[in-house]
Amino acid sequence: xxxxxxxxxxCRGEEAVPRHIVHTALLGQELAxxxxxxxxxxxxxxxxxxxxxxxSVGTNLGDRLKCRYHGWTYASGSGQCLERPAHPGEAPPRxxxxxxxxxxxxxxxxxxxxxxxxxxxxxAPGFGRGTAPPGLTLRSIHVWAPAAAVADALARHAGEAxxxxxxxxxxxxxxxxxxxxxxxxxxAMQPVADDETIIHAALAExxxxxxxxxxxxxxxxxxxxxxDAIEASGSP
Length: 236
Hints:
Layout: E1 8-12, E2 21-26, E3 29-35, E4 41-45, E5 59-60, E6 64-66, E7 73-75, E8 81-83, E9 102-106, E10 109-113, E11 136-137, E12 141-143, H1 147-159, E13 167-171, E14 174-179, E15 183-193, E16 196-203, H2 212-233
Helix pairs in contact: 1-2
């Protein structure tokens, strides 16, 4: 399967809060990710069809995005242009739409694929466990390295942990490992660009509420240490 047809996580679901716009990128394509008031999550090309201004600096009005430059608005779901303030009373041409990408919320993350808008064929978005959603999402970590190299480093370093934690490279962008302390940990890579990656991670089981902060700090620290090692050496 080509990378354009694959689903990748681009942000945690909790980051796509109402009346906000998430600016991110996937395979070199800038994205504006936003949640409508009815819960619909959209992933659009981060460019207004009118003058090319980034939609991520516009306004989330709850059912549409408003471009900051000339005030053109685009509907949630369809991306259809609804309003052009310079042409009051005149319906926008039906062909004027924001460019949309496939977008699904699953396993605590927003997953996007660049080829096609629907779910289509192939593996479903998510960590591919075939079981219940993960119990706790971790802080996403940015790494200046290719996604496949980061995934390989995660698998190797997890397997070399002092507690003998087993690690499995599910595919070039997904790693599954287990720690004596945390249990199963799931990692999915977001290839922002050829040499830029975001690691998204989640624990399969949620820790007790009283331990949540300590667990988040510990597991985020592990991934940050790996990131620092990769960037310091220039390779995994």
